[in-house]
Specification:
By secondary structure, the protein is an alpha/beta fold. The protein contains 14 helices and nine strands. It has two domains: 138 residues, Rossmann fold (3-Layer(aba) Sandwich), CATH 3.40.50; 166 residues, Rossmann fold (3-Layer(aba) Sandwich), CATH 3.40.50. Keywords: ATP-binding, Cell cycle, Cell division, Nucleotide-binding.
Length: 344
């Protein structure tokens, strides 16, 4: 039998120290390397990206970074960063984590939202001081959602680059096009251009690897099937069982920086009566939860609508469409894992 908890009863807190020490790849990417990446033979840009990142990593030395370098050293030559641009599911995070594992420390690895949350917790100046001593800062899922993020990350990247810190990022959007369709990006072209100037762009083409040769997403279960499936899949484990609507309301009261702690120790997820999310703010919060579940490789069982109907047609065609497609892709992969055994 599985032990049942509810995410809706959890109200996690994360200290500043926990935010700093948590800047490393998730367990899903804890052992990856350049050699474990499997490029698609039909997509030569994938092999080229591996070589580009390996060369970039070779340039990270013990002399890079540090406040002393910022104050007294010469300004670093060339661009400080490398930027992996490509669709979801082509292995960008795998390659970014491989770079992190191969590089000397101190170093940091986090999602875009984790860095913006870090600034909120520490203040901008203290964040710059903390990260300026690092040799490498990796930013996964670089996406500008609002003008405040644009100004903030433009300043942060510029100051870290000036300090000699090497930067590496992944995104579904070219750096010069960040923010398009989401806010009045034309009003912030200077900040966006400053961001773009920090990076050399490496394009990775290809289809979502989670769909290569894999079966279609499993159909949602009936509510009556959930208990039997849960005990077959997660026997002896800790499972978070929640009504989907109640979970969405609960997420509004938990800062996204704490979603990693929200699911800490959970072996499986069961959602009852999944329905299409109608409001953008709710949908964007849910995307962060989907990313954290994928990071920790937490299998999902669900009843209600299939995951390709989680977001409205307008959302799937709007400014945040890449986020929503990524979430659907990742949740589909976790749903496959959640239905790998037949109930006894």
């Amino acid at each position: 039998m599985a032990t049942v908890e509810h995410l809706t009863t959890r109200t996690p807190r994360a200290s500043v120290e926990e935010l700093l020490t948590g800047l490393h790849p998730s367990s899903r990417f804890g052992d990856v390397s350049f050699s474990s990446y499997r490029p698609d033979p039909a997509q030569p840009s994938q092999t080229a990206a591996v070589k580009a990142l390996e060369a970039f990593g070779d340039g990270i030395t013990v002399s890079n970074g540090g406040l002393f370098s910022k104050l007294f050293g010469s300004k670093p030559k060339g661009r400080a960063g490398i930027y992996l641009d490509g669709g979801f599911g082509v292995g960008k995070t795998h390659l970014l984590a491989s770079l992190w594992h191969s590089a000397p420390g101190p170093k940091a690895f986090g999602t875009f939202v984790e860095y913006t949350n870090l600034v909120g917790a520490l203040s901008f100046r203290k964040t710059v001081e903390a990260l300026s001593s690092y040799r490498l800062v990796c930013i996964d899922e670089f996406e500008l959602d609002d003008p405040g993020d644009t100004v903030l990350m433009s300043r942060l990247m510029r100051e870290l680059a000036d300090a000699g810190v090497k930067l590496a990022a992944t995104s579904n959007t070219l750096p010069g096009s960040l923010g398009e369709g989401r806010f009045a990006a034309v009003d912030f072209q200077r900040e966006i251009q400053v961001l773009a100037e920090q990076f050399d762009v490496v394009r990775i083409d290809g289809e979502d690897y989670r769909h290569r040769g894999l079966p279609a997403a499993p159909a949602p279960l009936s509510t009556g099937e959930l208990d039997a499936r849960m005990n077959a899949e997660f026997d002896g484990g800790l499972v978070a069982v929640d009504d989907f609507g109640a979970l969405l309301k609960h997420l509004a009261g938990v800062h996204p920086s704490r979603y990693r702690q929200l699911i800490d120790g959970i072996d499986g997820i069961v959602w009852k009566d999944v329905h299409t999310i109608e409001h953008q703010a709710t949908a964007l919060r849910f995307v962060v939860l989907a990313d954290r579940l994928y990071d920790k490789d937490v299998p999902i069982l669900a009843s209600g609508v299939p995951f390709d109907q989680l977001f409205t047609a307008e959302m799937m065609a709007g400014g945040y469409m890449k986020k929503y497609f990524r979430a659907v892709s990742r949740l589909t992969a976790l749903a496959r894992e959640g239905q790998s055994h037949e109930p006894s």
